[in-house]
Design brief:
Layout: H1 23-53, H2 56-59, H3 69-93, H4 98-121, H5 123-126, H6 128-155, H7 157-183
Helix pairs in contact: 1-3, 1-4, 3-4, 3-7, 4-6, 6-7
């Protein structure tokens, strides 16, 4: 190597852009904020679910492939953690595509928050139309999550991969929602 040449760093080892002098404390705070946003959505969803999962939903006609209720809490906990870490990884990169990717993440998080009270909470008020409305929301959520995966992947491969189980779960949940709308 000549004296004025720089060594080439493989792309997989290129660190995220510098934090603008903010350092580790700023990155930890950002991670905590992403985790907090996920926890907030999970908590608000839990409030909407709690009073109805043992109410109308307990006697509802559920899809034959529906898992037991106890599976949902742990599954969502893991998914919310993975989503938060994925968003944080994208935020750390701070490149020209990060803003659009994080906006897409925010949209899917809002749709996620909207689905639970519509599916669980509005059924007692509207009946089956609430389940169809929830189905429209979860289809939009699946599209938003797929968009987020597509935008996250080029920025951080790990972030894109971390979102894939969530996309799979949302599609699975959509199948459960569709069955409920057709059969209740």
């Amino acid at each position: 190597m000549e004296a004025n040449q720089q060594p080439v760093t493989p792309r997989s080892e290129v660190p995220p852009q510098e934090t603008g002098g903010r350092g580790t404390r700023h990155e930890v705070l950002a991670l905590l904020l992403f985790l907090g946003a996920s926890a907030l959505v999970a908590g608000l969803g839990g409030l909407a679910t709690a009073s109805n999962v043992n109410g109308w939903y307990a006697t509802a006609d559920k899809a034959p492939w529906s898992p037991p209720n106890w599976v949902f809490g742990p599954a969502w906990t893991v998914l919310y953690l993975a989503m938060a870490v994925a968003a944080w990884l994208v935020w750390r990169r701070r490149n020209g595509k990060s803003r659009a990717a994080l906006t897409s993440y925010g949209v899917q998080l809002a749709l996620n928050l909207l689905w639970t009270p519509v599916f669980f909470g509005l059924y007692t008020v509207l009946g089956t139309p609430a389940l169809w409305t929830a189905f429209a929301i979860i289809v939009a959520l699946a599209v938003a999550v797929a968009t987020t995966v597509t935008l996250f992947g080029p920025i951080s491969r790990a972030a894109g991969l971390l979102m894939l189980p969530y996309l799979s779960w949302v599609v699975f949940a959509a199948s459960l929602n569709l069955w409920a709308a057709l059969n209740n």
